[in-house]
Specification:
CATH architecture of the largest domain: Up-down Bundle
CATH superfamily of the largest domain: Outer membrane efflux proteins (OEP)
Helix content: 55-70%
Strand content: 5-15%
Structural class: alpha+beta
Number of domains: 2
Largest sheet: 4 strands, antiparallel
Shape: elongated
CATH topology of the largest domain: Outer membrane efflux proteins (OEP)
Distance between the termini: 70 Å
Number of helices: 10
Strand order of the largest sheet: 1-4-5-6
Length: 478
């Protein structure tokens, strides 16, 4: 009868682990990389912006928007909406979950850099045929620990971990991009709600004025001082003003629903409240220096992290062409009687090393190297495009902010003049020196000018939001 037992004392466990750690440290010192070292691509930025955008010393200043840049508009309601969106928006929650996914991938990718330690235990009773005695009956007890480690001599596992780390950093920059886009969208949508409310206010005021004139003309017609044509013309004008209101109300409801979606709410649950674009401040924006923009755009940072990850993938792919070395160590005790399981005389151990060199893989390994190199070139082009797009976004936003601000000032002057003309025409109509057609013309001109002014006010605010977004908002790479 044969019996075998194995066990592992705590001291033996510590020795095995300590030996593994020392071996890992030594091999890391001896390890080498077989791929290219990453260097940030040279992307020289212009010394100044070609468009100052009317933002003061934007060409020489290093001042950038504050982190809570939207507070510069002076709207407590906007502040509350953005805070709610940051808590409840589904896209932002998904971006946060992708960060956790990426962090988990880092742990997975870093695991091969450490040894694997497994415990096994065997307790067996078996009957077997044997000569002379006919059969034997025996027990087997075999608990043991086994450590396995792959020497990362060529840097493959480190490169895979580095790629995962770059992806994890990129996921954080992606979340910042989502957050910046979300905040800009909330501000833009809320301002559009206010714009439509102002346009409705203008339309209803003009409708009230038109109805007042119509009532007056109707009375004059009854007295014989106005003609039926005068009344019909004014009645048509009132009908047109009345018909202009429903499309504006429809757009307002649609924008409220869009705002609710950004907040993570159902459409009917949001009351956007009342307000006006005229209640908002129009803050100046300092555009900073172009050379600093690349540190302020999370999309640029994310694009670079993708490039870093792709470079690490090249290293890992090239390292796969070289031999892999795996060390295995195991130890325990062996005895036929459970009571003598930890007897030193029954101690057993094993050490083994294996080397595997790829010889023929059908071109898969070299194909992977070629793929990763091409992928790096693709991402390099994407990075370059992201950089020049960032610079272009700022230039476009600067000129849009300047031109829309100037257009707003000129349109305000046009509204003031249209209002004077309308007031003069009404006074002269009452005096009987002009006909109703003159009033209709000035009335239409005033309504159009006021409506255009509200739209231009929104356009200017939208240009400021776009400029804040192009500048990276208040974000800055740590």
């Amino acid at each position: 009868m044969t019996r075998s037992v194995s066990a592992h004392r705590p001291r033996e466990c510590r020795r095995l682990v300590e030996a593994s750690v020392l071996l890992i440290a030594a091999t890391q010192l001896l390890g080498c990389s077989v791929g290219p070292t990453y260097r940030r691509p040279a992307m020289p930025a212009p010394p100044r912006w070609s468009e100052s955008g009317g933002v003061g010393s934007a060409t020489v200043s290093s001042v950038w928007p504050a982190q809570e840049w939207w507070q510069a508009f002076g709207s407590a309601r906007l502040d509350a909406l953005i805070a709610e969106a940051e808590r409840n928006n589904d896209d932002l929650k998904a971006a946060a979950a992708r960060i956790e996914e990426a962090d988990a991938q880092v742990r997975i990718a870093g695991a091969p850099l450490l040894p694997t330690l497994s415990a096994t235990g065997l307790a067996q009773r078996a009957r077997a045929p044997a000569p002379i005695v006919g059969q034997t009956l025996g027990n087997t007890f075999y608990p043991a620990l086994t450590a396995t480690y792959e020497l990362d001599f060529w840097g493959k596992n480190r490169a895979l971990r580095d790629a995962a780390l770059a992806a994890a950093r990129g996921s954080r920059y992606d979340r910042e991009t989502v957050a910046l886009t979300l905040i800009s969208s909330v501000a833009r949508t809320y301002f559009q709600v206010l714009e439509l409310e102002d346009r409705l206010r203008v339309a209803r005021q003009n409708l009230a004025n038109g109805e007042e004139i119509l009532r007056g003309l109707t009375s004059e017609q009854a007295a014989g001082t106005a003609t039926g044509l005068d009344v019909a013309q004014q009645d048509t004008a009132v009908a047109l003003l009345y018909a202009a209101i429903p499309p504006l109300e429809e757009q307002q409801h649609q924008n409220v629903y869009a705002l609710a979606l950004l907040l993570g709410r159902t459409p009917e649950s949001l009351d956007a409240g009342t307000g006006s674009l005229t209640e908002l401040a129009t803050p100046p924006v300092a555009a900073g220096l172009p050379s600093e923009l690349l540190e302020r755009r999370p999309d640029v940072a994310s694009a670079e992290e993708q490039l870093i990850a792709a470079n690490a993938d090249i290293v890992a792919a090239r390292a796969a062409l070289f031999p892999s070395i795996v060390l295995t160590a195991g130890g325990g005790y062996e005895s036929s009687v459970l009571a003598s399981l930890v007897n030193p005389a029954h101690r057993v151990y094993s050490l083994a090393g294996s080397l595997t060199q790829p010889i023929f893989e059908g071109g898969a390994l070299r194909g992977q190297v070629a793929y990763d190199k091409a992928r790096y070139i693709e991402l390099l082009a994407d990075y370059h495009k992201t950089v020049i797009t960032a610079l272009s976004d700022v230039e476009s936003a600067l000129v849009a902010a300047a031109q829309s601000g100037e257009q707003q000032r000129r349109q305000q002057d046009a509204v003031d003049k249209a209002r004077k003309a309308y007031e003069y025409s009404r006074a002269q109509l009452e005096a009987g020196t002009v006909n109703v057609l003159t009033v209709l013309n000035t009335e239409n001109a005033l309504f159009s000018a006021q409506d255009a002014l509200v739209q231009i006010e929104y356009t200017h605010l939208q240009a400021l939001i776009d400029l804040y977004t192009a500048l990276g908002g208040g974000w800055k790479r740590a």
